Amino acid sequence: MSRVRRQELVEPGHGSLSITRQCALLSICRSGYYYEPKGESELNLKLMKLIDVQYMETPFYGSRQMTRYLRRQGYRVNRKRVGRLMLLMGLSAVYTRPNTSKPHPEHEVYPYLLRGMSITEPDEVWCADITYIPMKRGFLYLVAVMDWATRKVLSWRVSNTMDARFCVEALEEAISKYGTPGIFNTDQGSQFTSLEFTSVLKEAGVRISMDGRGRWMDNVMIERLWRSLKYECVYLNAFETGSELRQGLGKWIEFYNQRRPHSSLDSRTPDEAYYKLARPGYAGPLKLAA
Q: Which of 92, 180, 193, 268 could form a disulfide with 107 if both were Cys (CB 3.0 to 4.6 A apart)?
């Protein structure tokens, strides 16, 4: 169990156990329980938003190229600072490269199973990913579970940490609502390789697939979702609170699933494709008169 999750189990008003005793039983430091991390400065939040927007355009930018970009925008920043902010945002260059960034050393990494597959039916493959969401005075993280063939967003969660728990909650909600897929694909992030996450899939009999390191194209469907969501919702609204953000995301995802047609889905919406409904007004292919 992660440290963040153990901290959440502490009950300040417990009738028989003091906070000191609860911290000892949960193997966490009492001072760490009371510690409130300082937020990022206003300048860093502005830089993070600029980085996020540029990353949507050039996902192959690492910290070196992103530093050059920010300097050309007039910001005097060094690579160390930009690298720290990108790490905090969960961003890294998406080209194939030597294995310089490893998953959690105690977590098992699973092979990529989708190579050469033709995925055309709902629930053949689901995928999940996490993205950084800028707000007016801070940021949160968003995870979404998506059906690969139909692009339907099955579930989502927002969190202020990159802990695995909110990913597990999104996975459990998707399974409770829609059953199970044949294969579940993610990247090699520690949230998805965690025992907490993979055990849910194994217990449900789902085969686990993971992208190659730095292979963003392996999970391209959900990367396209992030681009649409950010340009059509997040960047157009300066959300101030978590509740405002959740409400805004909920409305956009409902619109995306129910009313946003895709050319790759024969102009159907994700809901229409998932439930195998014909698009409105479609009467089949035209037949030429003899």
A: 193
